[in-house]
Design goal:
CATH architecture of chain A: Sandwich
Strand order of the largest sheet of chain A: 1-8-3-5-6
Strand content of chain A: 35-45%
Oligomer: homotrimer
Largest interface: A-B, 35 and 33 residues
CATH superfamily of chain A: YjbQ-like
Number of domains of chain A: 1
Radius of gyration of chain A: 16 Å
CATH class of chain A: Mainly Beta
Helix content of chain A: 25-40%
Number of helices of chain A: 3
Distance between the termini of chain A: 4 Å
CATH topology of chain A: Jelly Rolls
Shape of chain A: elongated
Number of strands of chain A: 8
Order of helices and strands of chain A: EEHEEHHEEEE
């Protein structure tokens, strides 16, 4: 049993950006040398989250962000004065970490599952920490 | 220390279905032989999530799904053409995995907590992967 | 490799209460003696969740709760008869557990990240279980 930590750097290009980081996750798990266990991908930010969703049709991400924007609009009677209250809220709703099983030295994802960084206050330089724990 | 993987198969019967999988989770933890650690229950899908909630009154699940339906209705100006954009969005809001402590060879849940598969695009055959890691 | 369990007791003072538990989390990780791995903070309740968010401006928490209240109001056509359906729903949206990497005997949080108990049906005595697993 052992533990492995690494970082995935992500450069976002828009205020709201849905970025596939599945390949970086696979790379991190392979680099760990761990063949069975779990991996945790954790956003180190408060206005960008991490989630899983469909890896085939990019419209799923567009729909997700469009709908989140209607539920939590940028402009509202927020008190926080930085103009990104909506970003903090969206990130907490999406969540900041995802835990995925590791088997045969690979993250175990469903056929249609990809891992996504959800940027809600970009463009920025972001960082997702991956921890792999197992044997 | 060791790692144990197993699958919980779940047959859903409706488009939106709130299914208690707490007993299957307990069974998976017992089968693992691990007495102290954590267990991760992860949906292998993009339109079905996993969450915890009240195990006593089934109306809690009904209220949850009813309210989610009002927040993220099935029909809207979505681009994804499969008619299940709402399902993808609801699943990402609920989340795809839950991590629970393991103590005395049992998942540690609060008195009122049960684990639920949240089907948003059924009926389908679903799969929740349970990973137990510990000693 | 080893496993460590402890509880963080939290006394909430209002129906909706955003409480910083970052220091308690740090204390739990230090007490574990584990220097590398992960820690899982899990709410043992169905109407209180756990999330990360900004630790600098308390208005972020206020905005979050205000907006959640507009999305999931206390009064609606709920079936659950205890008057806290909104609390169950908000807690499931926020989530019941957060997993954070552990490095150098500390939880690895981003510069602006703090951990929060989100009380949605207080005031109550609450409990967050922290499990640390690693080496």
């Amino acid at each position: 049993m052992g533990t492995f930590h690494t970082d995935i750097p992500v450069r976002t290009r828009e205020r709201a950006h849905w970025i596939d980081i599945t390949e970086q996750l696979r790379g991190a798990v392979r680099a760990s040398g761990i063949t069975a266990g779990i991996c945790v991908a954790a956003s180190m930010h408060t206005t960008a989250g991490v989630t899983l969703n469909e890896n085939a049709d990019p419209d799923v991400g567009r729909d997700f962000f469009w709908k989140l924007d209607r539920l939590v609009p940028r402009e509202a009677a927020y008190r926080h004065s930085e103009g990104n209250s909506d970003s903090h809220l969206k990130a907490s709703l999406v969540g900041f970490s995802v835990t995925v099983p590791v088997k045969n030295a690979e993250p175990v994802l469903g056929t249609w599952q990809g891992m996504y960084l959800c940027e809600f206050d970009g463009p920025r330089q972001r960082r997702v920490t991956v921890t792999v724990i197992g044997e």
